[in-house]
Amino acid sequence: MTRLAPSQAALRFLRKAIGQHGVPKKITIDKSGANMAAIESFNEEHEADIEIRQNKYLNDIVEQDHRAIKRVARPMLGFRGLSL
């Protein structure tokens, strides 16, 4: 299996996500250069106008959304090995 460069891997992931969910209007990313290059490359190839929001803290809202699920699921992981 060949290894892809980070920007190529990011572009492959972006294409797959867009194929499943459609082209977004905005994408929020952290300071990753590979993600930035992939989105810019996709915009050029497909003449898309995806707005890039690059901020360390904008993804916090997404992370906070599933915090309650994590809180419930984490204690349940301890019951895996219990056999009756």
Description:
- By secondary structure, the chain is mainly alpha-helical.
- It has one domain (6-79).
- 55% of the residues lie in helices and 10% in strands.
- It is built from 4 helices and 2 strands; from the N terminus they run H-E-H-E-H-H.
- It has helices at residues 6-21, 33-46, 60-65, 67-76, and strands spanning 26-29, 51-54.
- The chain has a two-stranded parallel ribbon.
- The chain starts with 5 loop residues before the first helix and ends in an 8-residue tail after the last helix.
- The model has no long low-confidence stretch (mean pLDDT 81).
Which SSEs are present, and which pair or pack?
Blueprint: H1 6-21, E1 26-29, H2 33-46, E2 51-54, H3 60-65, H4 67-76
Parallel strand pairs: 1-2
Salient structural properties:
84 residues; mainly alpha; two-stranded parallel ribbon; 2 strands; 55% helix; extended
How would you briefly describe this protein structure?
The protein has helices at residues 6-21, 33-46, 60-65, 67-76, and strands spanning 26-29, 51-54.
Distance between the termini: 44 Å
Domain tally: 1
Residue windows where pLDDT falls under 50 for at least 5 positions: none
Radius of gyration: 18 Å
Q: Specify the structural class.
A: mainly alpha
Strands, total number: 2
Identify the strand order in the major beta sheet.
Answer: 1-2
Q: What is the number of helices?
A: 4
Task: Give the SSE string.
Answer: HEHEHH
- Provide the β-strand percentage band: 5-15%
Largest sheet properties? 2 strands, parallel
The portion of residues assigned to helices is 40-55%
Instruction: Give the integer mean of the pLDDT values.
Output: 81
- What is the approximate shape? extended
